[in-house]
Amino acid sequence: xxxxxxxxxxxxxxxxxxxxxxxxxxxxxxxxxxxxxxxxxxxxxxxxxxxxxxxxxxxxxxxxxxxxxxxxxxxxxxxxxxxxxxxxxxxxxxxxxxxxxxxxxxxxxxxxxxxxxxxxxxxxxxxxxxxxxxxxxxxxxxxxxxxxxxxxxxxxxxxxxxxxxxxxxxxxxxxxxxxxxxxxxxxxxxxxxxxxxxx
Length: 199
Hints:
The chain has six helices and nine strands. By secondary structure, it is of the alpha+beta class. The longest helix has 15 residues, at 91-105.
């Protein structure tokens, strides 16, 4: 008999701790004192919007997760991952689909996320549109816009009062190529592919 795999919502702090420990195994880069995504952070989300804390388990062991949060009336999908042994079976897509349903259920209509290298095709396939976020504490917004005369810049921002940001429209075929151009021309800046989807 085939096992039924379903997406679960985190129900309590004990369950949250188990899933969070699994997240740190899959995404060890978030385990730092400077990272805002601590266990305490997610405990607050558990109190406010538990619908955005999802996981898949097999025999009581987590094998996948989708964790998000709301800020300024926008939903961010912060962590998405599946255990290496279970990849390629559609579990990531199952998590994203359930996350989207819950976002709509709690009254929001857009999801934003940042993508790790190589995952752009996955998000594009699910209907997410990509934008390159370039940020720098060293270079001005105007200087960052000078790469292409600003024609592909769709928005600008100053984050926390000192990080200059530009959002550049990029076609799905050249995300990394465009990111590399910015990194070479503006040493010290940082780029990440941001995705969003209107539900």
